[in-house]
Amino acid sequence: MAADIGRIVSELISFRSLLGKRVLSVGAGGGQFVGLYREAREVVALDNLPSALDALRERVRSEGLENRVTPLLGDLLLLPEGENYDLLLFEFSLHEMGDPEEALKKACAIASEVLVADHDPSSPWASLVGEGEKVARAWRGVRNRGALLEVAHGGEQIFSSKEELLRRVAPLGPEVQGNARAWAEREGLRIPMVYRFALLKGLSGS
Fold first, then answer.
1. Residues β-bridged to residue 45
2. CA triplet 138, 144, 146: central angle to 5 degrees?
3. Which CATH number fits domain 5-122+130-156+195-201: 3.40.640.10, 3.40.50.300, 2.40.260.10, 3.40.50.150?
4. Is the pLDDT of residue 205 over 60?
5. Would you place residue 204 in the very low, low, confident or very high pLDDT band (cuts 50, 70, 90)?
6. Its pTM surpasses 0.85
7. pLDDT tens column, 63-96
8. Integer distance in angstroms from the first to the last C-alpha of the chain?
9. Rg (CA), the chain
10. How far apart are CA 102 and CA 182, in angstroms?
11. Is the per-residue pLDDT at 38 higher than 80?
């Protein structure tokens, strides 16, 4: 990822500390935000892609966090409700849920707090990669539940060459590749990325 992950991690820690908490992190595959887990007492890192969890396991090993982080293959909506967490974190993953409102309902039923980190609908990066409507739907779900606290941040996706940018978006299809090519020719290789954090009260039942 061409974004400054270290900065996002620091901003998240400032927004809501995980210190001493039992955390369920949704969309954790790849391990990009593994730096967040150092504060937590225990992290269950959930993803539905085996290859992403393999990358997460490697990051966890390299950071020496095997005793704190448990990778779990699965779907949030299929998790049993018997186990409760201090905090559930959506790692830029709420917009990928088929039904964000159902995902938030489930999250609020199994965790005392729910922390959403995701792209903002105004983000040029989200628009470029074709996720603008999915992101808007995710944040409508957050607003419908009512956030205790919410904050927006601005960053950038920075690429060293047009080829690097096109490689990054290649899996997203020809339309996104065309968007990326046009942006690079018109604006260069720095793409603004606006993202937002929100904190919701959980264990609310409905």
1. 25, 71
2. 105
3. 3.40.50.150
4. no
5. low
6. yes
7. 999 999 999 999 999 998 778 999 999 999 999 9
8. 36
9. 17
10. 36
11. yes
